[in-house]
Design brief:
Elements (H helix, E strand, L loop, with lengths): L8 E4 L4 H14 L4 E5 L6 H5 L3 E3 L5 H11 L3 E4 L5 H6 L1 H21 L4 E3 L2 E2 L23 H20 L3 E2 L1 E3 L1 E3 L12 H11 L2 E4 L6 E6 H13 L11 E2 L3 E4 H9 L6 E4 L4 H5 L9 H7 L7 H17 L4
Parallel strand pairs: 1-2, 1-4, 2-3, 4-5, 5-7, 6-8, 8-12, 9-11, 10-14
Antiparallel strand pairs: 11-13
Helix pairs in contact: 1-8, 3-5, 5-6, 7-9, 7-12
Amino acid sequence: MAKLETKKILVTGSVGQIGSELTLALRRKYGNDNVVATGRKTKPSEILLNSGPFEFIDITDRKSVEKVVKEYNIDTIYNMAAILSAVGEEKPLLCWDVNINGLYNILEIAREFEMAKVFVPSSIAAFGPETPQENTPQETILKPKTMYGVTKVAGELLGDYYFKRFGLDVRGVRYPGIISSETLPGGGTTDYAVEIFYEAIKNKKYTCFVKKDTVLPMMYMPDCIKGTIDLMETDIKNLKHHCDFNMASMSFSAEELANEIKKHIPDFVCKYKPDFRQAIADTWPKTINDISARKEWGWKPKYNISTMTKDMLDKLGKRYEQGTL
């Protein structure tokens, strides 16, 4: 089958935290009609629904994906559909089904239709307690202790296999915790770093589900989106790695984030009541070495904890005043 001439992009999981903003960014860049948003059952936002095509699919149901791929002549897939870490521990079989069986369907369809590229995100959840926690290297021990982490390691290996075995251009990064002012996260261990902003604006108090000295790598959504698209646009000749790029921006403790918010909302109070997610966070790195991403595709984050916090509070504050938060 000859490669498709018209560039058409499919985003799975486009109703999720990253997928929702990635879809809109791709539409701005490549044209609304050229980016097909998809979700499984969650109702999309008005802007997602009205700015371009939207279809309901289930990546574990291969026929539903193939139908959309054929209808829109899809050439590139961003596979953002996933069950995240906290939900994955509550529903491990579902996590495996979506994150592995669903990914296999995506890769097989991309191979059969000879697609140009596939983006398959990984995560810092791919690491485990045996991994060096400080300045975690690109090449290191991957022995996660969560089902989500297991699926991310398997996903990295599967993507690399399809690249080497079939020549399918599969790319991916190990996302840290992602902080966004637009869409709430969906059941991850770093969700507190988003929830804390909403509660600070609305109630001036928050009870955090990890300990105050818990340090994890984080990233602001604008950097996440830019980095994702930059990787996908990089000439493949520049890439030595493919599906497992370390991607870092900032690292801070829960208390450091709370203190940063207090600079803008002095009467904000944060308490700490660790739950089962603390054990997950304890297996993840504190800081990440992303020299490979910086060298191979020019990765460079723009935001730090101070500029991110100010921007988050500014945007959420305006939405709160408008009654849309």
